[in-house]
Design a protein that fits this description.
11 helices, 22% helix, 17 strands, disordered N terminus, single chain, alpha+beta, four-stranded antiparallel beta sheet
């Protein structure tokens, strides 16, 4: 499937920078990798995005508003708030909290499915309530339920993976810090990165950009960039998705419960306050105002990390783990005009070490985006388009990686070296180049990664 054209993508991308340096000592013996992005203008004068783990606002809102939004993000939800009936967590912070609210965590979610006789992916059919109700249209298997309880002693709704679902995987919770800058990257930037990768590597590396609905802007589509399958393009859509599927709380964008058994709160459960904002609005505003994950500047300044940085480029890691991106100018209209890039997020340079595209590096979980789960029933016609996502996962942005103890999408790699060695397929050449490095060079590359 070729990279699709995208409706509602915003202004043409004007600038991007990939720093791929081959001149460092010790790298000269390596065969060249693509070094520049052709036919793209250079960076204009732009400001560095603020980066810190200080929990202060990046300037998108005042700090008092940001702290109030963080309180909402951290709040523990109860059944009276609409929690469940099926859920994974009781707060946003439960899955996004290291080293500060909005970061990543050790929490993983469970997904499953199977392939039919024609080889097409099929969402699981999960029986609950003694088999009297079948949950369909989702790949997520919720780990928690609000009943049986004192109010509903005879109801049993806990989801479990049926033996028929032979595709099974864990997915680690993603960090959200700095994602306001990611949201503000023009679609054209991501599309051109994908085209450049494929052209310059002669088809060996071809990032896929998928077009997904923006829930708050009916009829608008944008390049997905949030979630392990790029299933969401806006932070408000992402917040609505998580509120329903991870906490079981319906909202104006996704107003239908997965099951109504044991449910006692009228839908949609996420009500607007006196200021007209609901929880999903506050969650999205909180993430948009977070600062980018910072480097460990002390480690980054060491000779080993500097040499490792050059090696990172020389063996081709930066082709997908793109060092630097630039956001759209302030005032750019996104999501069908429902969101305007503010000055604090516009024309900002940031360093995610990721391209936010889907790649097949040999660790794909086989799961296809469940359109009903993430976008609602009106988008079911798009389901076949997302078969391309089965073997692919979003490139994990490496910023803030030093705060994670479990690596890769499933958390099954426990060291940086292990994670590198798991890379194959599109990343096979880079993995081979790493393997061929001298041991001292490998340690220098790992020192660089530990500085991120």
């Amino acid at each position: 499937m070729e990279t699709p054209d995208v409706a509602g993508g915003g202004p043409m991308m004007r600038y991007i920078s990939l720093f791929l340096t081959l001149a460092a000592a010790g790298c000269a013996r390596l065969a060249p990798v693509p070094s520049t992005v052709p036919d793209l203008p250079g960076l204009p004068e732009s400001q560095e995005a603020p980066a810190a783990f200080d929990s202060a606002s990046n300037g998108a809102v005042d700090d008092a508003t940001h702290q109030a939004d963080r309180t909402a993000f951290d709040a523990i939800e109860d059944i009276s708030d609409g929690l469940g009936p099926l859920h994974n967590a009781q707060s946003c912070r439960e899955c996004h909290q290291n080293p500060a609210s909005g970061g990543g965590s050790q929490v993983a979610e469970l997904r499953a499915g199977h392939r039919d006789q024609q080889g097409r992916f099929v969402n699981p059919s999960v029986p609950i309530a003694g088999g009297t109700v079948i949950i369909t249209g989702r790949t997520l298997i919720n780990d928690r339920a609000i009943c049986p309880s004192a109010a509903f002693p005879d109801q049993e709704i806990q989801e479990r993976v049926p033996s028929s679902e032979t595709i099974r995987t864990l997915r680690m919770s993603l960090g959200l810090l700095g994602d306001g800058f990611v949201e503000a990257v023009p679609d054209e930037t991501l599309l051109r990165i994908a085209a450049w990768q494929c052209r310059e590597t002669k088809g060996r590396i071809c990032g896929k950009a998928i077009s997904v609905p923006v829930l708050e802007a009916p009829g608008d589509y944008r390049v997905g960039r949030f979630g392990w399958k790029d299933q969401q393009a806006s932070l408000l859509s992402f917040a609505a998705d998580a509120y329903l599927n991870e906490m079981g709380i319906t909202n104006r964008l996704l107003p239908t419960e997965v099951t109504t058994i044991c449910d006692t709160v009228e839908d949609p459960e996420d009500k607007s306050g006196a200021d007209g904002l609901s929880d999903i609005d506050r969650f999205a505003r909180f993430v948009r105002a977070t600062k980018a994950p910072p480097r460990d500047e002390r480690l980054a300044a060491t000779a080993d990390a500097k040499k490792g940085s050059a090696l990172f480029d020389a063996i081709g890691c930066a082709i997908c783990h793109v060092r630097t991106l630039v956001t759209a100018p302030p005032g750019t209209s996104l999501h069908g005009g429902s969101y305007i890039v503010p000055p604090a997020l516009g024309n900002k340079v940031f360093h995610p070490f990721g391209d936010f595209l889907l790649h097949d590096v040999g660790t794909g979980d086989g799961i296809v985006i469940a359109v009903f789960e993430h976008h609602g029933p009106s988008f079911m016609h798009m389901q076949p388009l997302y078969e391309v996502t089965a073997p692919r996962l979003r490139t994990a942005p490496l910023w803030g990686g030093r705060t994670r103890s479990r690596l890769m999408h499933d958390g099954q790699s426990l060291t940086l070296r292990d994670a590198i060695l798991r890379h194959g397929r599109e990343a096979a050449d880079s993995q081979s180049r790493f393997t061929d490095l001298e041991e001292q060079e490998k340690e220098q590359l790992l020192a660089f990664l530990r500085s991120l």
